[in-house]
Amino acid sequence: MANPVDDAIQDLITKINALPEVQDKTLYVYTQEKLLSDLEGVEFPAVGVIYSGMVKVGEQKQGRTQMLSADVVLTMGDLCEATYGDADEKPAATELLDKIRNQIIAECETAPGGHKWWFQFEVPAYLTITRSTSTDTAKGKAQILMYVQRWSTRVIVGIGAVTAST
User: Which of 50, 100, 127, 137 has a 20 to 30 A CA-CA distance from 152?
Assistant: First the structure.
């Protein structure tokens, strides 16, 4: 039996990875910290897709129809370096976020289970990390610029062979 969570996340990764700006830089991770760890040494921008959970749809008894959510985290890089280098990453980020939205919406007919992806929200996020070198400013700290998009789709869970325990 297919795993609806992995199928949905892989579907998003495939769609986003089709964009040249983040091709081969789109990962399935569980936290933003893990995303940054996995992207060490990768040229930004890069994307992480994080599973955000499921909730039951409607007043069904068994709860087999679920609304699955996933966060698409666009990582633009070190905010301090962007500011001091006179390169404002926000216009580039909003342009790329628009491309990601359009890519997912354009391909929405192929979402897992035949349901479309629904755009929920988009917010900026900043993550402070400790750098591995001591020559950096602010005592080795860096503030990473990220944007989070939340996407949802319906999935069916618990279909297949069911065995009763005795």
Answer: 127
